[in-house]
Amino acid sequence: MANDLPLNDATTLPALGFGLYKVEPEQAADVVVAGVEAGYRLVDGAEFYHNEAEVGEGLRRVDRSSLLVTSKFWGEEEMSRDAALRAFDASERNLGTAIDIYMIHWPRPARDRYVEVWRALIELRDAGRVRTIGVSNFAEHHLTRIIDETGVVPAINQVESHPWLPQHDLRAFHAAHGIVTQAWSPLGRGRLLADPAIGTIAGRLGVTPAQVIIRWHLELGGGLLPKSTNPGRLRSNLDVDGFRLSVDDMAALAALETGERTGTHPDERN
């Protein structure tokens, strides 16, 4: 099983969690149970995923004490301190359990309110209502601003990252500031699984293309959140300790970088 990553708030984060984006509400509880039974200890959700009540049902069916649960403030209707605090309360009610990690889902820079929202997350942390606070989809300039204006460095920045979009410069900024890089869309929303170079490496190592990409993320030193509703694939995605990628393998994967995104650029979502 992948190692835990140290966070700048003196806690740790499982390097490999599972995400619940686009998991239909009627599937969510069973997916949570399957993920926990497979061995995951990090359940990544969000207000925007519209399945938190069902995720909470799944959490009541497993040993919650061994898990970390993430939620995120969406902010589309209102990007403000009060909206963030209300959203946190609503997610906590829907989940029926404490939230361990809370994030700003997007900076929405055109609204110019993400520093205010970050201060709200600091309030929640300082009040003991959440263990760890972080951000999602923040670029370097967004991070620099919240750090400069509040003095509080996010523990995690969850960003799109995969071999097409490794985000090396942002990862270096994170490393310099003690921020953990956590990848969403780590498999390029499944599109990278058909890449011939990845298939060649997988065939030689006797593993799946998904396992190759997951191993690549771990060897870069960050965390990631692959998503699947299939119990077998959930188990397979976690089974990545029995092999390593060679220098040549890493070079072949580095050659896939194109800068292509499967999602929105952080400066474009408002």
The pLDDT mean sits at 97
Spatial strand sequence of the major β-sheet? 3-4-5-6-7-8-9-10
Helix content: 40-55%
Number of strands: 10
Radius of gyration: 18 Å
Q: Topology as H/E string? A: EEEHEHEHEHEHEHEHHEHH
**Rough shape?**
globular
Total individual domains: 1
**CATH architecture, please?**
Alpha-Beta Barrel
CATH class: Alpha Beta
**Main sheet?**
8 strands, parallel
Taken as a percent bin, the fraction of beta residues is 5-15%
The total of helices stands at: 10
Which fold name fills CATH's third level, the topology? TIM Barrel
CATH H-level name... which superfamily?
Answer: NADP-dependent oxidoreductase domain
Descriptive labels:
alpha/beta; 270 residues; 40% helix; eight-stranded parallel beta sheet; NAD(P)_OxRdtase_dom_sf; 10 helices; two-stranded antiparallel sheet; globular; Aldo/ket_reductase_CS; NADP; AKR; oxidoreductase
Layout of helices and strands, plus pairs?
Elements: E1 4-6, E2 12-14, E3 18-19, H1 25-38, E4 42-44, H2 52-59, E5 68-73, H3 81-95, E6 101-104, H4 114-126, E7 132-136, H5 140-150, E8 156-160, H6 168-177, E9 180-184, H7 196-205, H8 209-220, E10 223-224, H9 231-238, H10 247-254
Parallel strand pairs: 3-4, 4-5, 5-6, 6-7, 7-8, 8-9, 9-10
Antiparallel strand pairs: 1-2
Helix pairs in contact: 1-2, 1-9, 2-3, 3-4, 4-5, 7-8
Task: Write up this protein.
This protein is of the alpha/beta class. It has one domain: TIM Barrel (Alpha-Beta Barrel). The chain has helices spanning 25-38, 52-59, 81-95, 114-126, 140-150, 168-177, 196-205, 209-220, 231-238, 247-254; strands at 4-6, 12-14, 18-19, 42-44, 68-73, 101-104, 132-136, 156-160, 180-184, 223-224. It is globular, with a radius of gyration of 18 Å. The mean pLDDT is 97.
